[in-house]
Write a structure and sequence with these properties.
- Residues 45-238 form the Outer membrane lipoprotein BamD-like domain.
- The protein is mostly helical.
- It has helices spanning 3-18, 46-58, 62-75, 80-95, 99-112, 119-131, 142-157, 164-191, 195-208, 215-229, 232-245, 250-261, 273-281.
- Helix 2 (46-58) packs parallel to helix 4, helix 8 runs antiparallel to helix 9 and helix 11 (232-245) packs parallel to helix 13.
- The model is unreliable at 1-6 and 14-31 (pLDDT under 50).
Amino acid sequence: MGRGSGQARLLATVALLALSGCGFLGGLGAGNGGIRTPGALDSLTPEQIYTRGEQSLESGQEDDAAFLFSEVERLYPYSEWAKRGLIMAAFSYHRDGDYENARGAAQRYLDFYPAGEDAAYAQYLLALSYYDQIDDVGRDQGLTFQALQALRAVIEVYPDSPYAADAMVKFDLAFDHLAGKEMEVGRYYLKRGNYTAAINRFRAVVEDYQTTRHTPEALHRLVEAYLALGLTDEAQTAGAILGANYQDSEWYRDSYALLTGQGLRPQATGDNWLTALYRQVVLGREL
């Protein structure tokens, strides 16, 4: 089966499972009681176990579904049913919110079947298992970095897959999330008068996350912090970059008011990291 047909099959399966009350497995009998009893599934064919997994998934029993799909792999390793069971186990774990096991199953699929028809979906599930745990900027950002790495793999390794476009959107959001974390910490230092530490955070946003929505505010905060330290060349240059790129923003208006209130104006002046950045991003010269 080719990659296109395999992805189509998987997408169709997931779409069907998302429908409630469709009853397409109604003839298989009720429930999965006792499925975890040792030896309970040994007499069943891989197709029968797999079908019970689909039934559990349709009825909202994701934990049971993940167990059944995993049992297909355990009892019938390296079979075509094991291959299908492994990707569906990853999907079931993810839908159940068991992200660690979802990652494990998705990674096993990639390790065992790197050229499999569902490899792109396995990589996408792996990325989602990190991405869906990014819930607020106040938490440790290790998961965000891992999400970015996994999403990049979807985009670069599987650019023609049905998941690449969504991976790109999520990559941009996760990238923005990291910039938001830097801004949060920078504001914390700025408010407490720790201007050097604040500048380091805002500089990281301007240099490393300049395509995010946080860049205008970061430049304004640099104006504030440098003025507080009496470093007028840096403050004016930050204002000049802000004016050249975000002249209609509230942040430029605030920076302009701060600078002119002290007899200064937004202009590139002095010899510092911001004038080098000004030459690069405004004048288009090499650093």
